[in-house]
Amino acid sequence: MNLKNYIDFYALLQSHKPSREENRAFGLEIEDVNYSPFKQILLWVQKYEGRLKKPLLSQQIGSYLYGLTLTLAILAFLLGLFSGMGLLSYSGHEPVNVIYFLAMVVLLPLLTMILTFFSMLKAGSSHSFLVHISPAFWMERVLQLLPKKVQHTLKELPLTPQLTNWMLIKRSQLLALLFSLGLLVSLLGMVTTKDIAFAWSTTLQVSPQEFHSYLLSIAFAWRDLFPWAVPSLELIEQSQYFRLGENLDMSMIQNASKLGEWWKFLAFTTLFYAIFLRFTLWLFTQWGFRYALLKSFLSLEGSTTLLREMNEPIISTASPKEEQLFTSHEKQYGMQIAKLNSSYDVTLGWAMSSSELTVLNDTMQVTSKDVFEVGGANSLSEDSAIIAKSQGNVLFYVKSWEPPTMDFVDFLEELVIQVEHVTLTPRGTSNEKYIATQKELEMWGRKLETLHLKKVWLKI
Amino acid sequence: MTSMHPTFAVVGHPNKGKSSIVSTLAFDDSVQISDTPGTTTKKRSFPLTVDGKVLYELFDTPGFQRARRVLAWLEKHEVPASKKHEVVLAFIEAHKDDERFNDEVQLLEPIMAGAGIIYVVDGSKPYGEEYEAEMEILRWTGQPSMALINHIGESDYSQEWKRALGHYFKMVRTFNPMLATFSQHLLLLESMAQLKEEWIAPVNHSIDLFKAYHEQMFERSANAIAKLMYKSLSHVEQFALTQDDASKEEREQIEERYQVVLRGLEQTSQKQIEQIWNHHHLEKEQESLTFEGVDLFSKESASLFGLTRKELLITGATGGAMTGAGIDLMFGGGTFLLGSTIGAVLGGSSAFFGFNELSDVKVLGKSLGTNYLEMGPMKNINFAYILLNRTLFHTTKIASHSHALREIVQLKMGRTFTEKWMDDTLRKSLEKYHTLFRSKDEVKAEVLSEYEVLIKDVLKHLID
Ligand SMILES: Nc1nc2c(ncn2[C@@H]2O[C@H](COP(=O)(O)OP(=O)(O)O)[C@@H](O)[C@H]2O)c(=O)[nH]1
Ligand SMILES: [Mg+2]
């Protein structure tokens, strides 16, 4: 996991969206990692990164950041190297005071590490209480060193304050580490190429005994393992010097060869405080950065949707095929009558009993010679027989609420061959007092319209 | 001849609601439903699939058209009961290309391929003998069957229907596709499972899936709503100025744009929610989101769609929104107070609340040398509640809208809608998030999902 994956992920979410089906299929393919949303995202990015436009945004940004970091790293190393050389420069007149070097490799690292620690605690918030130690503040300065175009791209990136803060904290630790390495290298270099006399001196009233105990506590981490890397009380006594005039203490001159022994202690102090502790902190920031990155992955717009698409089964209930469109014509049926005659030659009722038909005729005040029940439970031959018996003017009742089936249409078509005139009368239920609704009448009208039967009139 | 998964064929007389029932059961609003008989001309499959795997399949079929003729054909063959289904197969074989029997062939095919029969009738109209031929044909198929009584109209003839149907079907159930709730839907599935013993397990599995599906819909809706709320409240509209200061037109323009964006967000989210609930063809009528003082912040609309004045006062004071409108509210609407008399304040003119403003319009100097005019994020406390009310109302309507309905949906929020879901505690927790959304602070993904959970609970409460 790294920034590259993150930027690729962002670019993929921006430009290329696989369908829900594709995502689910992939989710099932990598089902064995579905306990970790993060692994799923990484695998997803791997699968689709090929679709990204080249050059990759992540590569562009990565190489700029790399270049920037490398330049700064070299500078930091050189700075360390030169500061070391400055501190250890030995003219031959005066011994080198170890206190300066100690301050550089103990106090400075400890102080900056505490500051780092604070900024790590505040890394999550965008507005820091101490703006100058806020990494975001420095990030902005640093970014201004980049070309304008890259600055713009960076602004577009979804870098949360937390992420930028961690990026900066992580890099600052790396730079500090390189600075310390520079110091160490200069120490080792100076010791091997020159013959340096180390000494210590301070304005404060510090006895060699006290100084020894300070040094012992500085060396707490290695004093038991490598006792030779801790200056002895004797050495300390011998190497104390006072800057009184040009003359050196005689005892110092006598022990000049011993004074070089200090370098072991200095090297160990550098190794432990400036390098080992810094390295540990650097590892820690690495972890913090990863954590921030992980958070950013999951809070990127579109990532929850993607995870949902990968992990949620696609349930579908709809028909996979489009239905053939049915168009009904709204034209009104042309042959309508509003009033029934007072008498008909035959009364037919589709799926109605003859007693019901008699009641209907009475209600409508219509008389008729013959009354027949057709359709319903009749057999087809019974119906044909009735048609054969019918002639003249036919009053034909149908249930208004029952849609005309083809069975009915067959009958009607056979009937009109035989008779002169059919008055089709949709009737409502007895609850409705046999009155058909407007909608039902329209439905019957639409049906008749499609049949083009010349002798059929619709009673409305 | 049984297929791997349970299948069901919805059959019956034309125009009795077969397609309506299928579209409700399948959450599919693309089915053609009309009061013209013969709208459905081909059988149509509605599979319930999970990741492409079919769990069960529902068939919508055309209605019976020439039942008596088909029955007459079948009855010409004198066979023992054990052979009757072969006669039906022979009928299909013989009439495959016969136009006249297209509908019957279409509806018999899935049945003969092993589908359970769901025979649909309309219980609001009287029973008639003409149905008997259809039921007799279904008996010839030898497939397990049940009857469903639908109620298209007001009257009730279900007693006579039950008596008649009892002769042909072991199981008779009532189901109204337009009004059925989700649990009634599941109950019907349970009954369908009873048709064949070996279907019980797969149909129960399908029921579980339906529940999961329903849950997904809730989650995705809550997600869409949370996003809408966050985006609307936090939205900042910017545009580059030509001069150092903004002209009156430019100020009006940014206000206009800001409102267009908010309206657009609402529309997009409504579309999204309609898609989530599978209403792809929905037509609706609703009042659009307005920002004019009268509509949004008047005494009436505030209590109708957002919070009442009292609630606003409490919310403003407790929600931690002690900036902008919140302070205005506490101290009697800063700018407005200056212009209005004490009497007007006590009388409670709408200006008193300081909610007439949506957000500040500010001119910003930017590093690149251009000045920007900026509007947003939202300052108005009530806006969140108006928007939330609207979107919850819309979602509730959509979620309980039958897929069989084809009319235009009327979205008219009643006076009591807010009371249905909000109480003081809920309002307080909501306001915490709204305040955060309105601030320019980063809103973490986990915070947004907390809000989402809150919304989901409200939706469940409203819809179930
Ligand atoms: N009010 C109401 N109308 C219904 C109901 N079921 C069906 N309809 C209406 O009845 C008509 C026929 O419905 P449809 O599903 O197309 O019937 P199908 O021919 O059997 O498929 C349509 O106009 C539907 O709107 C119902 O439960 N209530
Ligand atoms: Mg239909």
Q: Give the strand content of chain B.
A: 5-15%
Q: Point out poorly predicted stretches of chain B.
A: 293-304, 317-356
Number of strand elements of chain B: 11
What string gives the helices and strands of chain A in order? HHHHEHHHHEHHHHHHEEEHEHEHEHE
- Continuous helix count of chain B: 19
Biggest sheet descriptor of chain A? 6 strands, parallel
Bound molecules: guanosine-5'-diphosphate, magnesium ion
Count of individual helical segments of chain A:
18
State the secondary-structure class of chain A: alpha/beta
Radius of gyration of chain A: 50 Å
Secondary-structure element order of chain B, as H and E? EHEEHHHEHEHEHHEHEHHHHHHEEHEHHH
| Sheet of most strands of chain B | 6 strands, mixed
Average predicted local confidence, pLDDT of chain A: 85
What does this structure look like?
The complex is a heterodimer of chains A (460) and B (464). Chain A is α/β, with parallel strands linked by helices. Chain A is built from 18 helices and nine strands. In chain A, helix 4 (57-88) packs parallel to helix 8 (161-193) and helix 8 (161-193) packs antiparallel against helix 13. The radius of gyration of chain A is 50 Å and the shape is rod-shaped. With 464 residues, chain B is an alpha/beta fold. Chain B has two domains: 7-195, P-loop containing nucleotide triphosphate hydrolases (Rossmann fold); 215-463, no CATH class. Chain B has helices at residues 18-25, 67-75, 84-95, 102-112, 131-141, 158-166, 182-193, 200-234, 248-276, 293-297, 299-305, 309-318, 324-330, 334-339, 342-347, 381-399, 417-421, 424-438, 445-463, and strands at 7-12, 44-50, 53-60, 116-122, 145-150, 171-174, 237-240, 284-286, 361-365, 371-375, 409-411. In chain B, the strands form three sheets. Chain B has a six-stranded mixed beta sheet with strand order 2-3-1-4-5-6, with helices on both faces. In chain B, strands 7-10-9 form a three-stranded antiparallel beta sheet, with helices on one face. In chain B, strand 5 (145-150), helix 6 and strand 6 form a beta-alpha-beta unit. The longest helix of chain B is centred in the middle third of the chain and has 35 residues, at 200-234. Chains A and B meet through helix 13, helix 14, strand 3, helix 17 and helix 18 of A and strand 2, helix 2, helix 8 and helix 19 of B. Strand 3 of chain A pairs antiparallel with strand 2 (44-50) of chain B, so a sheet runs across the interface. The complex binds guanosine-5'-diphosphate and magnesium ion (MG). Guanosine-5'-diphosphate is lined by residues 14-20, 33-35, 39-40, 63, 150-152, 176-178 of chain B.
